[in-house]
Amino acid sequence: MSAPRLEIHLEHLQHNATTMVNRLARQGIKVTGVSKATLGLPEIVRTWVAAGVHSIGESRIESIESLSRCELGVPLLLIRSPMLSQVDRVVAHAAISCNSEAVVLKALAAAAHCQGVRHGVLLMVELGDLREGILAADLEAMVLLTLALPNLLLVGIGTNLGCQNGVAPDEANMGELSRLIEALERRFGIRLEWCSGGNSANLPWLTGGGDRGRINHLRLGEALLLGREPLSRTAIPGLYTDAITLVAEVIESKRKPSRAWGTRHCTSFANGPVAPQKQPDQPMAMRALLALGEQDADPAGLSAPGINIEGASSDHLVVSGAAEALAPGDEQRFQVSYSSLLRAMTSPFVSRCFIGGPA
């Protein structure tokens, strides 16, 4: 098989999804499987649908369009706010979209009218992480606008935490979201279907045993794919953390000095300069060079037992430690972080290998 490649164990991904769907269902919470880190790979999405996810979430309309042709039988949710230039495509292919701008809502309504459909809207609320979202003081006016626009269906409200500034979901901000949805329902005499608490970062709060309030929906990506929550990278009990691994091939293995020498400046991927070094008078150490670089994956997100990552350039990864046992032609497997998985999936130079299938 070619390298570098992602080895994707579909039965492990199904296990992760089934476990989380069932675990959260006991708390009255539905799961949207967020497949954006895999570019909406149909093989993975179909595995999640078989495991019982309520819907599929994607951030790019191109992936939504591709998945809409797969006839999955579940709603497709555009989790990134729609671009004005793409509202026609959003309405045509996504059942629901996350929104925070009045001008976009009006454009979606016009597009839905032209297409003779009704488009679902999840209004996003800003609760501290400072990415997308409507301030609480402005939420009532946005709800009023959404309800007044023909061809739009207000599905509920939601928020996103943890992604921009690492703000953790907790009793305070999740409690505020519950209070907001209840206030809106009283004010407008409606019942909203979704109170979407966020993403995989919500899982530590949920396992803390506190009152979940009105939270009944989560958008999970990292938990389903990598078996971890993103705030502390902690493994989630009962899930596979190695359902997806990255495999790279060794192209050089030599004993070299452990420090660079000569006058040093910036590199393409690191700031500098640093103090010049003379050729070190120190023990030599084995280093292996792998055909994997910044163009293929985020080196900071790679890990393997006994392997130390010394650095990376566009096309090369330098490792030590267990590298002594590596020779040209050998393969080395790495666990990946979310950022490393995303970049590897995006790289045209990283192939994909599916192992097993849904049980």
From TrEMBL:
<dbReference type="GO" id="GO:0008784">
    <property type="term" value="F:alanine racemase activity"/>
</dbReference>
<dbReference type="Pfam" id="PF01168">
    <property type="entry name" value="Ala_racemase_N"/>
</dbReference>
<dbReference type="InterPro" id="IPR000821">
    <property type="entry name" value="Ala_racemase"/>
</dbReference>
<keyword id="KW-0663">Pyridoxal phosphate</keyword>
<dbReference type="InterPro" id="IPR029066">
    <property type="entry name" value="PLP-binding_barrel"/>
</dbReference>
<keyword id="KW-0413">Isomerase</keyword>
<dbReference type="GO" id="GO:0005829">
    <property type="term" value="C:cytosol"/>
</dbReference>
<dbReference type="GO" id="GO:0030170">
    <property type="term" value="F:pyridoxal phosphate binding"/>
</dbReference>
<protein>
    <submittedName>
        <fullName>Alanine racemase</fullName>
    </submittedName>
</protein>
<feature type="domain" description="Alanine racemase N-terminal">
    <location>
        <begin position="8"/>
        <end position="225"/>
    </location>
</feature>
<dbReference type="InterPro" id="IPR001608">
    <property type="entry name" value="Ala_racemase_N"/>
</dbReference>
